[in-house]
Backbone:
């Protein structure tokens, strides 16, 4: 894989606050041949499942940048892959056979991106083409709500409408009201627009932290069981997590005592940490939790070979807790003050310092959409594009298997 071919990602979220797909943006791809080679190299890591995976190649908006566009057909696309293609490009090349020939193998796996300037010509070209798009995409940065509603109305018969590059809760709501089925973006990472953060934790969250601290201190098993019995819902959620496909156990865990026997205290610390995140009352809680788990697993994978094995759980918890302030609606200091976390975790989450900070910065860069910064952050850890991209895909696949 070319050393500079990194991709960043963002979720595609429906009106029920559920992730229905993921969107990858490939940076500095150079040529269609390079893209096809890079994507094929990631095949073994691809998150195969019901959720679609959008692949955004900015260079496809500039035909001159793809003299070998037909080489894209060399990509053996997984069944859930969806390639984004500019509707304007389709309109420009309506009379040119090479473009449709190159994309024909991806028929039914396309998202055609529209913006207002494409107009009737693009609509007519797409409607008369053999490309058979599955999704129709719209740029949320450039289209007003009325323009978006008009375009969605005109393209409703062509594919599922998805608004891309959504940057705020308000923009998300406007897109859904305009008729979009889903939106793509990280608009939920900063909490509800204008909502102040609380200064104390809710009782259920405080109780989860109490159990967490007991586990982290290797307290007597009876004391931990007593604390768990005070919250039946917490016990149920813990066992559901442990028995989910993502945990990969060969037998079903029937009780907390059984879980300690099979897993030990360190692994239970990891999953109780996820349960704290699960207590969020934010309407975007399912998406936030999925993102937190993906970050945690990504940091754990990135750290393999770079930190001692016994620190992998700490990397996971650092990533999983990196959105705790958003999920619980409090400051990060408030969220962590009652916990007895290892110093490197607290340093990374509160001060962006210490040994884990570089891994957290890289995990965030994978979401930010800045290819140059992503490459720089990876370079600081000595990681290649192949390593970072594969880790992202494996982390997503991991999160997909958990029940939450």
Residues:
């Amino acid at each position: 894989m070319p050393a500079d071919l990194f991709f960043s990602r963002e979720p595609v979220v429906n009106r029920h606050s559920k992730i229905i797909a993921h969107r990858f943006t490939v940076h500095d791809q150079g040529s269609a041949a390079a893209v096809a080679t890079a994507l094929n190299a990631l095949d073994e890591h691809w998150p195969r499942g019901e959720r679609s995976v959008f692949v955004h190649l900015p260079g496809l908006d500039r035909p001159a940048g793809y003299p070998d566009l037909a080489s894209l057909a060399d990509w053996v696309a997984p069944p859930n892959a969806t390639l984004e293609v500019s509707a304007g490009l389709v309109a420009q090349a309506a009379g040119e056979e090479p473009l449709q020939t190159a994309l024909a193998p991806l028929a039914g796996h396309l998202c055609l991106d529209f913006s207002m300037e494409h107009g009737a010509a693009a609509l007519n070209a797409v409607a008369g083409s053999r490309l058979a798009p599955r999704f129709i995409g719209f740029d949320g940065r450039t289209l007003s709500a009325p323009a978006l509603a008009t375009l969605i109305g005109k393209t409703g018969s062509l594919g599922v409408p998805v608004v891309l590059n959504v940057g705020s809760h308000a923009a998300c709501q406007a897109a859904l009201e305009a008729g979009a089925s889903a939106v793509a973006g990280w608009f939920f990472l900063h909490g509800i627009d204008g909502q102040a953060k609380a200064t104390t934790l809710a009782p259920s969250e405080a109780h989860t932290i109490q159990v967490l601290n007991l586990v982290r201190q290797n307290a007597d098993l009876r004391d931990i069981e007593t604390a768990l019995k005070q919250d039946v819902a917490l016990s149920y959620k813990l066992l559901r997590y442990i028995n989910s496909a993502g945990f990969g156990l060969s037998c079903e865990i029937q009780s907390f005592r059984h879980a300690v026997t099979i897993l030990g205290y360190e692994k239970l610390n990891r999953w109780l940490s996820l349960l704290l995140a699960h207590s969020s009352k934010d309407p975007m809680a399912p998406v936030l939790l999925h993102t937190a788990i993906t970050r945690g697993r990504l940091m754990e994978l990135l750290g393999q070979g770079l930190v001692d094995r016994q620190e992998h759980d700490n990397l996971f918890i650092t990533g999983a807790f990196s959105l705790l302030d958003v999920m619980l609606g409090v400051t990060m200091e408030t969220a962590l003050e009652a916990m007895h976390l290892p110093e490197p975790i607290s340093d990374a989450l509160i001060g962006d310092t210490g040994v884990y900070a570089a891994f957290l910065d890289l995990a965030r860069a994978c979401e930010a959409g800045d290819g140059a910064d992503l490459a720089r952050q990876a370079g600081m850890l000595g990681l290649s594009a192949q390593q970072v991209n594969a880790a992202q895909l494996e982390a997503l696949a991991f999160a997909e298997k958990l029940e939450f």
